[in-house]
Target: HAD hydrolase, family IIA
Amino acid sequence: MDDVVKTPTDFYAAYIFDMDGTIYLGDHLLPGAKRMIEQLHERNIPVRYLSNNPTKDPAEYAQKLARLGLPTPVEEIVNTVVTTVRWLQANHPDAVVYPISEEPLKRALTEAGFKISEDPSEIDVVIASYDRTFEYRKLQIAFDAIWFYKRAILIATNPDRFCPFPGGHGQPDAASIIAAIEACTGTKCVANLGKPNPVMLTASLAGLDVDPANCVMVGDRLQTDIQMALDTGMASAMTLTGEATLDDVRARAENQRPRYILDRIDKLIPLQYWPQLGWSEDD
Model:
């Protein structure tokens, strides 16, 4: 482990956290998460949360964090529901959309004034997302809008292959739906509005007077969380509590590895401060 495991030597100006597999898994906080976040708050260091999971909106995530003992203003949470709607507003404000998604994204699109349709002859944008109600009927609508009528483009909320769950289980995520649509239509997804797209970091740092170079992105996935930080020059920290493993890190080139690797997330607090805080790994 010593060839790759490293921890910070001082605090950063702001901390951006993935949630699923990093702060919590299922309905349980991961070891050390609560005391770490509380320590950052005590030092008035900004904390922001990101998630590629579009099955909840920011308000629902805030409720979950509060329920787990981490009260969080909704403004400190950004997920792909937020970035997808903002991208459409900026790039296709008058589009008729067809979201293959769950209710939070549909609700946000409606609230933003977008028309949602299942009529392939009028759909401008097909949105592939994490959808546990995906079925052949939905694939047919996307196929007709993109291939038969040749009018719709394909975008995605996130590129994740699966969503982690406790016990090592998971569920197929948006990547499987993207692949199905691409396979039958011959088209390519033109925009991914989740990590590793830097739009996620831009959205999370909005309103903070901090230099991104003095911030750290913390997550459990090399292809999304860590890659986004690497692409933007931001420091990165990977937890070993979610998807990625030490073997995954070792398989990467040196310049593609996270700056820090943590066997528990509270080691983001520099170890030199632990004695004065009265902390131990057994707490």
Notes: DSSP finds ten helices and 15 strands in the chain.
